[in-house]
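Severity: low
Component: inverse-folding endpoint
Summary: output formatting inconsistent between runs
Steps to reproduce: submit the following structure tokens with default settings.
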């Protein structure tokens, strides 16, 4: 029987297909190479040193991180260039990060969208005598962090960064996360185009007053998969692309077989409406999309082990308890003890909940990789 090895693994577990993972890593690197931009992957998706090694092997220039301790896991294991694409404003966290960056001679790049952030970074950087690269975060439509295009704060902050000798103004950084709520590929393409145009206009305004914009860093997996031009861009920061999940699938940006991460679970009980499986919100998360955008029905697609990716056997997880998933039965009959395979809604959240990946190649289990920075949310 194909997938026999999968039915003997203890569940729930996160299964990672290494050849699909490698294909996804190569695919984005190829896009970057074609358009002459750097790849600085966001490691919040996988939080795993082994996977970053694969990204670095094909050309990644360093990492992007969100959180201090997530970044430290990679710095302490030899990563030399780190962008924290998150407004770090807490002195103790900056102190921890800058101390490690001095010790390991890391090229540290931070993100600012307020004078508060600028002042606290400059203060800690001066204390350590550490030169820090700084990006201004531009809000291109997600309306989370960043400064909108017409806000005079952009010029004021860029000027202040330039005048602060311990800081080195690098340029502009944005994340078009609202693409996760797009309707289709064309809609994502328009969001990416709009992002590039906003950044280009901001760059022109700054350069008109002799503020040099050396770098423009963008990145979300959907916008990178949908874009066809990178004219003003110097770097991309995709995260989700290593695994993919139901969002790029829903947007028509990938084929089902390109999703590298799945979850194995066991049917532990059956009632007239549902198969109950041993993966609930503590394994799958409760995400129905990313960035609070509920783009998908249910909490994952479920297949009997022998019918993975067979639409005729696809079921939906309609509800979650912490430790149980409710799989709508359709007309199938799955005996208690059967193993099922799940395509997740949001693979980044799934990875953060597990301790390790069970690594497979086709139907063989070949390894187990630690999720080194899992739970590092500080
Ligand atoms: C600031 C920032 N940059 C890059 C990314 C990577 O986006 P994705 O996971 O869609 O590739 C994220 C994801 O949330 C982000 O918040």
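Observed output (run 2 of 3):
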């Amino acid at each position: 029987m194909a997938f026999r090895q999968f039915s003997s693994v203890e569940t729930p577990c996160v299964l990672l297909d290494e050849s699909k993972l490698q294909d996804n890593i190569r695919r984005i690197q190829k896009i970057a190479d074609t358009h002459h931009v750097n790849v600085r992957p966001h490691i919040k998706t996988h939080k795993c040193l082994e996977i970053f090694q694969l990204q670095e092997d094909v050309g990644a220039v360093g990492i992007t991180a969100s959180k201090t301790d997530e970044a430290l896991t990679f710095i302490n294991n030899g990563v030399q260039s780190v962008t924290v694409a998150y407004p770090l404003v807490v002195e103790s966290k900056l102190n921890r990060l800058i101390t490690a960056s001095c010790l390991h001679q890391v090229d540290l790049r931070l993100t600012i969208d307020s004078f508060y952030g600028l002042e606290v970074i400059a203060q800690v950087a001066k204390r350590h005598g550490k030169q820090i690269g700084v990006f201004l975060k531009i809000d291109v439509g997600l309306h989370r962090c960043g400064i909108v295009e017409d806000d005079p704060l952009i010029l004021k902050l860029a000027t202040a960064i330039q005048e602060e000798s311990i800081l080195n103004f690098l340029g502009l950084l944005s994340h078009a996360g609202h693409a996760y709520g797009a309707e289709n590929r064309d809609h994502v393409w328009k969001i990416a185009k709009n992002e590039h145009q906003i950044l280009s206009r901001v760059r022109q305004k700054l350069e008109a007053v002799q503020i040099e914009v050396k770098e423009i860093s963008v990145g979300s997996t959907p916008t990178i998969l949908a874009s066809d031009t990178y004219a003003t861009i110097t770097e991309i920061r995709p995260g989700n692309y290593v695994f993919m999940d139901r969002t790029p699938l829903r947007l028509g940006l990938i084929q089902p077989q390109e999703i590298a991460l799945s979850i194995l679970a066991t049917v532990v009980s059956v009632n007239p409406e549902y198969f109950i499986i041993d993966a609930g919100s503590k394994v799958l998360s409760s995400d129905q999309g990313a960035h609070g955008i509920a783009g998908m029905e249910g909490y994952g697609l479920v297949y009997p082990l022998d019918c993975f990716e067979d639409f005729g056997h696809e079921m939906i997880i309609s509800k979650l308890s912490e430790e149980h998933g409710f799989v709508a039965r359709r007309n199938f009959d799955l005996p208690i003890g059967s193993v099922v395979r799940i395509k997740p809604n949001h693979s980044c959240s799934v990875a953060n909940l597990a301790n390790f990946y069970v690594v497979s190649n086709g139907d063989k289990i070949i390894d187990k990789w630690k999720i080194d920075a899992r739970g590092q949310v500080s």
